[in-house]
Amino acid sequence: MAFIFNPQSSIVTGIVERIDIHPTHSYKGYKLRPGRPYPFGTTIVPGGVNFSVFSRHAHYAELVIFEKGSMAPMVEIPFRGMFLKADTDEPVWGEFRIGNVFTMTVFGLDDENIEYGFRMGGPGGHVEKGQPGFHRFDRNTILLDPYAKAIGGRDVWGKTPNWEDSYQHRARVVRDDFDWEGDRPLEIPMEDLIIYEMHVRSFTKHPSSGVKHPGTFAAIREKIPYLKELGVNCLELMPIFEFDEFENSKISPMTGELLMNYWGYSTVGFFAPKAGYAATGKSKDGTMVADELKTLIRELHRNEIEVILDVVYNHTAEGNEWGPTISYKGIDNSTYYILTPEGYYYNFSGCGNTLNCNNSVVRDMVIDSLRYWASEYHIDGFRFDLASILSRDQSGAPLPNPPLLESLANDPILGKCKLIAEAWDAGGLYQVGSFPAYGRWAEWNGKYRDTLRKFLRGDPGQVGDMVQGFQGSSNLYYGRGTTASINFVTAHDGFTLMDNVSYNGKHNEANGENNNDGANDNNSWNCGWEGFTEDAGIQTLRKKQVKNALAMLLVSQGVPMILMGDEAGRTQLGNNNTYCQDNDLNWFNWALLEQHADLFRFARNMIAFRHAHPTLRNRDHFQHRDYVGSGYADISWHGVNAWNMDWSSDSRTLAFLLCGQHAKGGTAKDMSIYVAANMYWEPLEFTIPALREGVRWHVFANTSLPAPDDICEPGKEVPFAEGQYTYLVGDRSVVILVGK
C-alpha cells in the first residue's frame, strides 16, 4: 500500500495499492505475472515468488513446481504460450521472457513447502551419453536452478537416494531473514591469521567426539572451546556447497565399504549449503539448514574465529559427456562449459569438465555466488580450488589479465574478504609466485611445503630455499608482501603430518584404484620403518620431527595453515588421497589428544608464541638492515657459528635472529627471537649471537628434549646461565630462544 500525501494541506488524501502485487495471467488455477529478470533464482515478493533463469540458446522453458518431497509435479507452467487473462479468464498470449532471461512471478505459493526446477528446449535435440554436443537440451529432464539457495534430495548424509526420482537435486526457496544479532565479518589482519583446515564431517564424526549431532555444523559449535584452547583464529572449511556424496560411489575391494565423494570437490550448486552437513537437514527445510550454518558462523565470530570457505568454481558435478545432466548442461551447455571444437569437454580440472569462468554470464554467476556468501553468511574469505583455471579463456588458454580474477580483486562487496588461490590446475598450469594478484590475492605456497619437507628429512641443498621460506618467500612474492604466502606443511591433499614422518610411500589401496591415485612426490621419510611400529626410538624421532615441522611453520613469515588433527598426531595409515573414505581414515579420533598430549601441548604453545610476538607476523618482507637504530638488522643469518651461515649444498643447519624492535609497532621492549634448526643426524653446538647489555637469552623450545621440557608457555622461558654463549642443538632438532 502507498499513501498519497498532499504537502500543501498536510493531509493524507488517498491510498493506492501496488500494481505489481496483482496477477496478469492465469494457468491451471495459478495466478501469474511477468517477473523481474534480476536477481536470478528465486525472490520472495509480495504475494508470491519471482523465478528467473538465464539461457542464451533455449527456445522453450517451463517452470516445474513440486510439493516438497513429491514425485509428481503440482504444475508445469510454460514461460511462453496461451494463458488466461487473470481478471476475465479470456485466452491471452503471454511470453515471460526478457532478452535471454525467462522470468515470472507465481502468486499464492507456500514457498516453505515447494521445490522447483526447469525444463528447457533448444537446438541440437537429445544427445546420447558419450557423444559430443554444443547443446544438450532435453525437455524430458528437469533441471536444477543454478542460483538455488537451498537444494534437496540429499538431505541426510549417506541416505540412499530414490534412484527412480526423475528430479534428484531439487531447488528450494530460502528466506534470508536470520537474526545476526549485530555480527559482522571480523576483518582480522591477514598476517595475524593462523588457519586450521577442516572437513566439517570429519571433525566430529568419530564416536570419541562426544557431540550431540556428529558430523554437522551444529557439532562444530560444541568444539569452539577446543579451537580457542588450541589458539587458531581462522577455520578453512573444505567444500560446504551442495554436492552429491553418491557421485561415482563404489564398493572398496579391500574393505567392502561404500566409497563416496567424501571431500565434496564436485559442486552441484554454488549458492546452497550442504544439507547433509546440517543436523536440521533431515527436516527438509532449506531455511533451517541455512540458519544452522549461520548460527555456527555467528558463534565463531563471537569467539574471534574467522571462516574461510574452500570453493570449487573450476568444474561441476556434471562431469564430461558421460556424466549426468543436473543443471548447467541442460540449461545452456555451451555458455557454462569450455568445449573443444568437436563439442567435447575440456578437462583442465581433472574432474571431467571445466567451467567457462571468463564468459561474462558465468563470471557474473561466480561473483554473485561469492557476494551472496559474503553478505548473507558473513563469510570472511575464500580459498579457490585449482584457481589457475579461473585465468583461462574460452578456448582454455591462460589470459594475461583474467577478467574474473580482476573483478574479484576489485569487487566492492568482497572488498574485505580474504582471497586465496590454489595457484595451479590439473591441466599443467602452475602459477605459484606468478598468480595474477591485483594486490589482493594470496596463494597456497606449494614450494614452501616441498622445501620444508625436504629440509625436515635432511636432504642436501635445501638451505637456500628454506631461508626464503622462513622470510615469507620474497623470491616469489617480492612487492606483494609476506601475506601473499599461505605456508603449510600438510593439507587435505597428501599425507597428514604424522604420516609424513611414518611413510616413505603412499598406501592408497583402500581407494580401489590399485594405488595409482594420489601424488607420488611426497618428500616424506618414515624415520626407519614403514608405518606402525612399537620401536620406542622411532616413535620418539617421529614425534620430534612433527614438532620440528610445527616449530618451523609457526616461526615463518607469511600465514601459517595447519591441517585438522596434525596437532594430535592424526594418521590416515599412509593414504595420501582419502577423498572417498567416510571412516576412521578421515575422522578425527579425539582420543589422540590424550595419546599424544605432548604434541597438542607443543602445538598450542607454538601458536601462543606466534600470537605473542609481532616480529613473527611482519606484513612486509625484511630489508636485511637496521633501519630503527637497534644495533641489529631486522633479520640476520647464522650457522653453527654466529654471523657465519653455511650456505653450502651439504649444509643441513641454519639459524636466524629476528630483532623485535623492527616488528610492526616495535619498541625497545620488544623481544628478539633466535631460531636454530639442525636437520643433521648428529648434535651440534651453536654459538649464539650476543645481545645488548641487560638482555639475556631464554629457552622457549627445544624439540630434542622430552615433554614437558620441550617447550614452555610463552612468558615462562628458562634463562641462559650467566656467561653462556653456546647451546647444544640436538640431532634433527629445532631450538627457539627469546631475548629479554
Q: Architecture of the largest domain, according to CATH?
A: Alpha-Beta Barrel
| Low-pLDDT regions | 1-10
Query: Which structural class do the helices and strands define?
Result: alpha+beta
* Tertiary shape: elongated
* Radius of gyration of CA atoms, rounded to a whole number: 29 Å
Overall residue-averaged pLDDT value: 95
Main sheet makeup? 8 strands, antiparallel
Strand count: 33
Proportion of helical residues = 10-25%
* CATH topology descriptor of the largest domain: TIM Barrel
Strand content: 15-25%
How would you portray this structure in words?
The chain is an alpha+beta fold and 740 residues long. The protein has three domains: 14-172, Immunoglobulin-like (Sandwich), CATH 2.60.40; 190-325 and 359-614, TIM Barrel (Alpha-Beta Barrel), CATH 3.20.20.80; 623-739, Golgi alpha-mannosidase II (Immunoglobulin-like), CATH 2.60.40. Helix content is 18%, strand content 21%. It is built from 14 helices and 33 strands. α8 (446-456) packs across α9. The longest helix has 19 residues, at 536-554. The termini are far apart. Mean pLDDT is 95; it is low at 1-10. Residues 197-610 form the Glycosyl hydrolase family 13 catalytic domain. Belongs to the glycosyl hydrolase 13 family. One of its GO terms (biological process) is glycogen catabolic process. Keywords: Glycosidase, Hydrolase, Transit peptide. It comes from Vecturithrix granuli.
